[in-house]
Design brief:
Chain lengths: 144, 266, 130, 664
């Protein structure tokens, strides 16, 4: 059998107003982070349905990170508070199912924090890579 | 209330009175100072280098002793306080240092940085309370103008010592008010007196100390108080007009226990 | 910068924890230093010279033993550079070099007077010797 | 099935340097729905846009994917392009292969691989896109300006000039702000009052402008074009309509020892006061914390001497509700507290003052009637030391002060130094500086004049300690050029304190849902291209609330903000954002989960008649979204337990398609 040297796959949901702009700023400042991170733009972190995260893990993601505006700074006033509570519940359930807490994260990154975005992604990617490949929630029916 | 107490070497020799008054006053105020057993000298100055470990172990042992007794650690001497508090801070914030220290300390059980370090003044302010001290005063200072000398060790670095605003401290001033005196606010009260450089270059220390006492005198101070034996030495060495005493002496005086202490010290 | 100077610089940065690049050259450390007049090299020069790797003159200057470690420069530096820690690191490197103790036990008796507190002697030893 | 066109941009070498653009367009050619794929040097250029337009027509495209820079940059551009070619603009998706790919990854294989995946995700999303049409909402043709300093005044005057009504809300009893406190202005040295007070009079006399002084904004609801604002008009215990501003009450009031905030506490005012002679509105205000009549009912002198009968001790706070189409924030700045910088002895000596206090000391209407006298003993100072950068340019780790440069201090310090030397040539003036920053028209010339013509001593270095002793202030500083520590016996020390946004800005930002930076300055929508707009639609920024600014800069920004407001108010209707929540009524069970999480109150319920499978009818309670109010955050879509609520443009199916594409 071939040794699988699969690179980790990380899905990052970024809110349009703060974190996606923060990611852009990281780009403007040429602050490198691993290409394993793929960003999906959502209007607000509270748009992220737990379903999306489950789907990502079913499809073979190794880590999922949600980035939003800092508490109190949400463009929609309070969306990130919902995110914080929803994800706290979801992540502990995932942990129970065997998806380690290090594979999931909620982080606040403002539009001015390009450096923080890059640092966060570097750190998260490193932690996820250290855990190795995630197979726990892969749904074979979702795979071809 | 019982607290662990670290007097330090100078308080056992040249500054016996600083220690003795502190103990007497604590008794009056309902605090028992339990001297840590087999303590060693703190070294007098904190070495800021990250790779100096052995020289800080005596402080860590003191901190560990207080932790074992689940007590706060109280110091009186400014220098001891500075060394112990900075060492504690380094254990708390510098993981590499903490690991090295704990390898030395393995036989005694490790130390994790949780001991709270109070200067005697903080004990008076935060635990006893200046209001309570005010009630216990039997010989108020009757508005005597007293200059407080903080020096450098009590306040700096401010981010570590966290006793008071390092540029405009109030703690000893508030104590003097509680004792019925009038604090003299002068800006050189947190400038260095010349410290240990007095060994090599006494003329320099004299110059520094004199600029401090001159500044205090220009505001009409009749006495100066300090918490540090070395500051006291430097400040009074060439000073003829302004008496320099330990803050605990002033406290003992106001609380009416000064004479007792004087007798036992002799 | 020569390799040797660069190594020295790296060592000083490591043991002091100071990043001299944070300095914005305002000179407030030297403005606030109580030992300024006694020193050949002043706090801001320590920072700049370490950054430039020009360290040998610092290792040989008496200024190392004039710094009072009073932390006035640390407290007042607007950029959080902490020059006193850098001076301390240079002093340590100097005293750790063999035979570079600045004070010897034999020197002490001559310096004593009857009121001098122990604190002064132990402090001086800690600062001046290894 | 969609017919999708893919357009990969090189962005010169910005993308093409790290991403093999040909490989990307080739790879995406085989994705489901893609009928056309190409790449070009600059997609945003006219030629690039024409290429898109031609392809839309030629290949009858129903959706397009542009692999280029961030959608925050050019999404609007490409939507317009699509629209021009007859395609619904919401059938455009951007794959961000510049900021989030080529600029952050180093080697071509990695960059190319990621770009392809991002492209595939965008294609997967477009496959599920549906044409969207934005709704329309009316525009209330009235603007609100918050803050009545020079920024607010200029903005209000410019908006009123275009014919739109404007209200100014100012917390102080008068408009005028910081500029009213200044003496002269750099670099021309014309007097601040001479150029400001005529503008204040213009405001008072303009029938399009209403001034709510001594008032605060209490609540802001609504959205661009349709803000509902509650303004609290604090009781000033004087009837503004009747008071003539004669000032008789302010002379007779027996309560004489109230620190005068207009002179920064350097002299006293009465309990009833008019801040300064040219105040607008020129009416008296009673300070409830100082007035004996209000505190314990014993006095009443002002009511007795008021010929107009304007005093009203029973006056209550009043809430004014008004609708506005646009809001301009002009809340300004304050010098920071010198509390943490007591090495300069600010709290220990009256003769250590801030620069703003110095302005009052040299102002003819100030506490010393314009004579430069030191506050402690009213003697003429012969040596003055100015210290720059007090609290500015401090690293965060120093735990005090501000990280930024306050920008105006170099110039006003040069001005102060010059004015002192001009009026009192016997006075020696020293300025300690780290850098002298004079980028502005005639600024450096001004500073050089202070040195060369007026003989101000500029010392490169900083002051470390100020020690009051006797009648002198012993200043210890460093001279970095001479490499020496300097000691100056000064009579007066002036600190150029850093400036910070007004404290009211933070709660206001929360009310407006406008974003702020870590220093509490309002953030602009784009740092270069949209400097006077907040990211929140309909909220505009004027003056120092957005960052430190001098007067000319403030006035130009105020005018720019006004022109943006005018552009908005000139429209009769606004097109909204079509990416809003929409419920599937057949799935909705009327549980109210969505209503509870909606921050805008955009969701309501109606009882609707439905035909059931057995051909009977049933009345069910279902959610409805008000398209003018919904901002499209999507909180409701996740709260909905039945999955009835979805977000247009960011539908669950679309995001899942993206997830699937990324995780393939």
């Amino acid at each position: 059998m071939q040794v699988n040297e699969k690179k980790p796959l990380i899905v990052a949901f970024c809110c349009n107003w703060c974190s996606y702009a923060g990611a852009d700023l990281a780009g403007n400042n040429r602050l490198a982070y691993p290409a394993d991170v793929k960003i999906i733009r959502v209007p607000c972190s509270c748009r992220v349905n737990p379903m999306f995260i489950l789907r990502a893990f079913q499809r073979g993601a190794d880590g999922v990170i949600i980035c939003g505006c800092h508490p109190g700074d949400c463009h929609y006033t309070s969306g990130n508070y919902f995110t914080r509570r929803r994800m706290a519940m979801l992540f502990s359930m995932l942990d129970y199912l065997g998806i380690e807490k290090e594979r999931t994260r909620v982080e606040w990154v403002s539009a001015a924090e390009g450096a923080k975005f890059a640092a966060t992604m570097n750190d998260f990617a490193e932690k996820v890579a250290a855990l190795g490949e995630n197979k726990r929630l892969e749904d074979l029916r979702c795979k071809k | 209330m019982k607290v662990s107490y670290f007097p330090g070497c100078t308080l056992k020799t040249k500054a016996v009175k600083l220690d003795e008054y502190a103990r007497r006053c604590a008794e009056v105020l309902g605090v028992t100072l339990e001297e840590i057993e087999n303590w060693q000298c703190c070294g007098g100055v904190f070495t800021t280098s990250k790779d100096e470990v052995a020289t800080k172990l005596s402080s860590v042992r003191v901190l560990k002793a207080a932790q074992d007794k689940e007590q706060v650690l109280v110091t009186v001497c400014s220098a001891c306080h500075n060394v112990v508090k900075q060492t504690n801070h380094q254990v708390q914030t510098d993981k590499e240092f903490a690991d090295k220290v704990n390898r030395y300390m393995a036989a005694e059980g490790g130390y994790d940085g949780t001991t709270k370090v109070y200067h005697y003044l903080e004990l008076l302010r935060d635990v006893v309370g200046f209001d309570k001290i005010k009630e216990k005063v039997v010989k108020p200072l009757n508005g005597e103008k007293i200059a407080v000398y903080y020096g450098c060790l009590l306040l700096r670095p401010g981010t570590v010592m966290k006793m008071d605003d390092p540029e405009n401290p109030k703690i000893i001033e508030d104590l003097i008010r509680a004792l019925g005196g009038e604090p003299v606010i002068y800006n050189k009260r947190n400038e260095c007196c010349g410290g240990y450089v007095t060994m090599e270059n006494p003329a320099f220390a004299e110059k520094k100390s004199q600029s401090i006492t001159e500044n205090a005198k220009s505001f009409g101070a009749s006495r100066m108080i300090t918490a540090c034996p070395l500051c006291k030495y430097n400040l009074e060495k060439h000073e003829e007009e302004l008496p320099v005493v330990y803050f605990t002496e002033l406290l003992a005086e106001a609380l009416g226990v000064k004479e007792d202490a004087d007798e036992s010290a002799e | 910068m020569s390799q040797q100077n660069n190594n020295l610089k790296e060592e000083l940065i490591r043991i002091s924890g100071v990043n001299p690049k944070k300095c914005m050259r305002c000179g407030k450390c030297s403005a606030t230093c109580p030992a300024y007049e006694e020193m050949e090299y002043h706090p801001h020069e320590f920072v700049v010279m370490v950054e430039n790797g020009n360290i040998e003159p610092l290792l040989n200057t008496e200024s190392l033993y004039r710094c009072l470690t009073c932390f006035a420069c640390v407290e007042r530096c607007p950029r959080g550079v902490e020059p006193a820690k850098l001076v301390e690191a240079v002093r340590l490197v100097a005293t750790r070099r063999q035979g570079a103790n600045h004070m010897k036990a034999d020197d002490v008796p001559a310096k004593l007077d009857e009121d001098l507190p122990q604190q002064a002697i132990v402090s001086a030893f800690r600062k001046y010797t290894k | 099935m969609q017919r999708i066109g893919v357009f990969v941009c090189w962005c010169g070498s910005n993308i093409a340097g790290t991403v093999d653009v040909q490989a990307v367009s080739d790879a995406l050619k085989n994705e489901p729905g893609v009928v056309f794929s190409t790449n070009y040097q600059y997609m945003c250029s006219q030629a690039g846009q024409n290429m898109i337009k031609d392809a839309i027509k030629e290949y009858r495209l129903t959706g397009i994917v542009v692999c280029s820079c961030s959608p925050r940059m050019h999404e609007a551009t490409f939507r317009k392009t699509a629209q021009a070619a007859g395609l619904n603009p919401y059938m455009v998706e951007i794959a961000n292969i510049r900021e989030q790919c080529s600029w952050v990854h180093k080697d071509i294989p990695t960059g190319t691989e990621k770009a392809i995946i991002l492209g595939k995700a965008a294609v997967a999303k477009v496959n599920l896109n549906a044409p969207l049409t934005p709704g329309e909402s009316p525009v209330t043709k009235r603007a609100l300006v918050i803050g009545g300093g020079i920024a607010g005044i200029q903005t209000a005057l410019d908006i009123a000039d275009a014919g739109f009504p404007v209200d100014i809300v100012e917390t102080k009893p008068t408009i005028g702000g910081k500029m009213a406190q200044l003496d002269k202005t750099f670099p021309t040295l014309d007097c601040a009052a001479c150029i400001l007070t005529p503008k204040m009079v213009d405001v008072a006399q303009n029938d399009k402008i209403r001034i709510f002084s001594y008032s605060e904004v209490q609540e802001v609801k609504g959205f661009v074009g349709n803000f509902d604002v509650k303004i609290k008009k604090k009781a000033r215990y004087v009837n503004e309509d009747i008071c003539t501003g004669c000032g008789a009450c302010t002379e007779k009031c027996p309560q004489k020892n109230v620190p005068n905030e207009f002179n920064l506490g350097m002299d006293n005012r009465r309990a009833i006061y008019i801040p300064f002679a040219q105040a607008v509105p020129k009416v008296a205000t009673i300070d409830p914390n100082a007035c004996n009549m209000l505190k314990n009912g014993k006095c009443g002198v002002c009511a007795k001497v008021c010929a107009a009968g304007a005093i009203d001790y029973k006056q209550q706070d009043q809430i004014i509700e008004e609708k506005y189409g646009a809001i301009v924030v002009a809340t300004g700045f304050n010098p920071i507290s010198m509390e943490k910088f007591d090495e300069f002895a600010y709290s220990q000596s009256k003769d250590v003052i801030t620069s703003l206090e110095f302005e009052r000391l040299t102002n003819a209407a100030g506490p010393t009637a314009g004579k430069l006298l030191r506050p402690s003993d009213l003697e003429h100072p012969h040596t003055i030391v100015f210290v720059q950068c007090v609290g500015s340019r401090c690293a965060a780790c120093a735990e005090k002060g501000k990280e930024y440069c306050s920008k105006i201090c170099c110039m006003y310090t040069a001005k102060h130094a010059m004015l002192v030397r001009d009026k009192y040539p016997d006075t020696e003036v020293y300025v300690f500086y780290i850098d002298v920053r004079t980028p502005g028209k005639n600024f450096d010339e001004f500073y050089r004049r202070a040195v060369e013509e007026y003989g101000v001593h500029y010392i490169k270095g900083m002051v470390g300690k100020v020690t009051p002793e006797g009648k002198k202030l012993k200043v210890q500083g460093s001279d970095l050029i001479m490499d020496e520590q300097v000691h100056i016996d000064a009579d007066l020390v002036v600190l150029a304190a850093a400036i910070e946004p007004d404290k009211s800005a933070r709660p206001l930002a929360t009310m407006l849902t406008a974003s702020m930076d870590t220093n509490d300055f309002f953030t602009e929508a784009h740092p270069k291209l949209r400097p006077v707009e907040s990211p929140t639609a309909g909220v505009f920024l004027s003056g120092a609330c957005q960052g430190p600014k001098d007067i000319p800069e403030t006035v130009s920004q105020a005018g720019a903000a006004a022109s943006k407001v005018i552009g908005l108010l000139a429209k009769d209707k606004l097109t909204g954002n079509p990416c809003i929540a929409s419920p599937n009524e057949l799935m909705c069970n009327g549980c109210s989960s969505c209503e509870r999480v909606c921050p805008y109150g955009a969701i309501t319920y109606v009882d609707k008649e439905f035909r059931m499978p057995d051909r009977t009818t049933a009345i069910r309670r279902v959610a409805q979204v008000n398209p003018a109010v919904c901002q499209g955050c999507g909180a409701c879509t996740v709260a909905c337990p039945s999955g009835a609520m979805d977000l247009r443009g960011f539908a669950s199916a679309q995001i899942i398609a993206e997830v699937d594409a990324i995780c393939k």
